[in-house]
Design goal:
It contains 15 helices and 15 strands. Helix 2 packs across helix 15 and helix 8 runs parallel beside helix 9.
Amino acid sequence: MSSTSENLVQNDMASDFTGICLAELWLRDYVGHCFNYASKIQLGACARKLQFKVLAQRDCLPEVQRMLPVELIFRPAPVGRPTGMGRVLRGIQGFVRLSQDLSAIDMHPLNAEWVLFVESASSFQLLAWMWWLRHFRPAGAPAFVVRLLNSYFDEGGRRWKTNATSMRLALRVLETASRKRRVHVAVESEILAEEFRRLTRLPVAVLPMPFTHASSPGGATPLPPDGLLNILSPGRPMLVKGIGTLAQAIKRLTDREQMAGLSFTLQDYHALYREPEVADHLAMLRNLGSSAVRIIPQALDEQGYYRMLSEAHVVVLPYDRERYHADSSGPFVEALGLGKPVIVTEGTWMSAQLQKFGAGLTFRDQDPDDLARAICAARLEYPRLAEQAAARREEWVAYHNPESFVYELLKVAGS
């Protein structure tokens, strides 16, 4: 990783662009990462004196519109997770819906000096974007960069998932479009990049994440007078993010009377779709009746979210390896950017990053007993872990910050 200052002295292909248009199909309120992601990119764009606007959901809240230059475009997507032919039907419906929504975009400001950055897209949504891009003359079209978020490879079974076929076909359409227009693919994980390079002939760039800033406070959080180590699980609780594994680990620690010196902070807020099992896991934690387990029952705005992160001593991210062996994690980047030790699942992108950056411990995938072991080890080793996390923080935030993100995005767009 090279620092932003080192990047900026290189041949600056990014100077040809005057604006960034960010497409955030899920941006409506403060829930999730969408607002934080957009606001950080806005910081990077402003630092470079670029125009900036965000395409968001039609019912985006007024307070968000006051903080971001929002254009109301997208209808909310249906909730639920269909399988089989239901997934194909949902994809076709999504293509039609997005194609209709894109017709409402004010195209006049968008020209060859702009970058259209799509934060994420499914295969059918990519087809809709390529259909919309055809309305521009090739020489006058904005540079199109799409960030692909999720792995299509079953790492455990060593085979491609069934939905990899539709993504491969969508990428073929992007390859065709790239013959006349600037169309680019980006990811946030080198592991993910290697997978997509097997699905497409397009170059796959790896972007930094904009969630941290070199000037933000970082370093070890002192233990309070009672000596309790505050272990935080940030964000919306989900099965793939290991809420079940964490809940069972906390119960085991309680049953074994190993909670001394530990406290836990979790979030619990509703979204459009929520697995029923999540409520069961959180109810079990509440039924423990332990004062050492604090559950925050609402989503937090940006300021409140970062305050919660800054007050934590250790951040636990027990994500399932099947989903996150290649996928990146915003909360992981934020935690290392604040100099926090972390506990993550072994065999993931996060555990690979810990070999060089930050500090923390790993545990076996979906193993509550091993997670409980790692939590106890973090309690014993906290001074060493905190010192190491603080020492490694500077190099991490030199790459993962808004200015670095915008520079690398524009470099990809101009390539």
